[in-house]
Amino acid sequence: MNAACTRAGRAPESVTLLAVSKTHPPAAIEAAVAAGLRSFGESKIQEARAKIPQCPGNLRWHFIGHLQSNKCREAVEMFSLIQGVDSLALAQEINKRAGQAAKTMPVLLEVNVAGEASKFGYRPEQLLADWDALNALPRLEIHGLMTVPPYVTDPEKARPHFARLRELKAVCEARLGAPLPHLSMGMSGDYEVAIEEGATIVRIGTALFGKRQYGALKATSEAAD
Ligand SMILES: *Cc1c(COP(=O)(O)O)cnc(C)c1O
User: Fold this and answer.
1) Annotation: CATH topology of 2-224
2) Which residue is closest in CA terms to ligand 1's atom 7?
3) How far apart are CA 166 and CA 103, in angstroms?
């Protein structure tokens, strides 16, 4: 990350390393905390519900999955940032639940920059169409944009998608008349390119924790339901 920042002429502290801890047990998170990490990403509400109480209390948790409207109340309680907001209906539900919890909820809007049929995320045109309505929600704080580009083995192929997200953020900022602090983009395979293209949050799982074993935490999550 430091090398990528140097190449891009950016300050290393301008990029947050979000440790994506989904499927990994509290012990792995404790080890990451001992190494200095404080921000963790989870993509399932039921897994987070079981895991977060077993982890140190001074951490920042980001929700990075696809949020269902019936899980918004819990997401607002557990997370300091909800990254995957991709429709006005979901934003309205988060706004309502944040109001009930007497807080404002920081969010990132997820954009499907490549227009992949299989992916969640706003189409760029739809994001711009909803932009004023999203900004009118009083309990929502829009902190920026996030994307998961198409999977590629050559990280250079992801670069145009990262650049597109950066350009879209600039369009949103011009409409808003204010800066948006965050661009969440880049994962284990392509975070260096993402930093060169302006990422302020990189979401890294495999490169920190090793391969995910789906199902390994199932027993804990189910016990908590
Ligand atoms: C799982 C996940 C990641 C982490 O991916 P790695 O390739 O393991 O670094 C990042 N972002 C999102 C949205 C994810 O779901």
Assistant:
1) TIM Barrel (3.20.20)
2) 188
3) 29
